[in-house]
Design brief:
mainly alpha; 2 helices; single chain; 89 residues; elongated
């Protein structure tokens, strides 16, 4: 198998905890001193645009995490299927 247990599908949302915290801190700092590190997070563009951009980024991150999760499962399946094949002598 591997050196660690497989991550269950229901735990995939944990990938979003750091980015959500980061966005909250950036927006808070933007409110306090007016500076944000990226132009797409400027509050002056409007709350709707900011929300749509943030949701889009988080969705892309979740899709990437799901792809990594799926590739990890596929790799495990391939490795376990090759383990059951007897090797010629």
């Amino acid at each position: 198998m591997g050196d660690r247990p497989r991550l269950p599908w229901r735990s995939l949302w944990l990938v979003l905890t750091y980015p959500l915290t980061w966005i909250a801190v950036v927006l808070f700092r933007g409110q306090t001193d007016g500076w944000v590190p990226y132009g797409f997070l400027l509050p002056s563009r409007g709350a709707g645009t900011l929300l749509l951009t943030s949701v889009g980024l988080l969705a892309m991150l979740l899709v990437a995490a799901a792809a990594v999760w799926g590739l990890g499962r596929a790799r495990t399946a391939v490795l376990s299927s090759t383990d059951s094949v007897p090797t010629p002598r």
